[in-house]
Request: fold
Amino acid sequence: MREWRKPFSLGLGLAIVVAILASAAAQEKASIPAATLEKPKAAIPPQDGAKAPDKPMQAEAHYEIGVMYHERVFESLDQAIAEYEKSVKLKPEYAEAHFNLALSYHTKAKLGTDDKNLYRKALAEYKLYLKYSPNGELAAKAKQNIKAVEARLRP
Reply:
């Protein structure tokens, strides 16, 4: 897996990130003529005479939130993999579970560090899908993904 920087590592706490984005949004809305807004809203004035956040600070806040969501993708994939593994253990011929397990391994490998072990697991699961559902609705996609995974495994 890629080594992603932890969210808020630049010292921006979640409350500060939210405040920066809220202030920027309020400032942006305040600059739009009231006639173009459905319901005109007053801008939230900066507290204690502070300036509204500048664009670089807003950019950093959006970046921090993006990193947070990106890390959630990996956590969600790990949870999905765990559930699909339980599913195929309980019902080994469950073709769709094999396909989705393969897809989860494949996705995690592509988003991570090109982990060959994950590609091998994906390949095995795609093949199990085809074993149990050779003419299933996902068969063509499984075959296409097998070719893509095999290409990744070539030296």
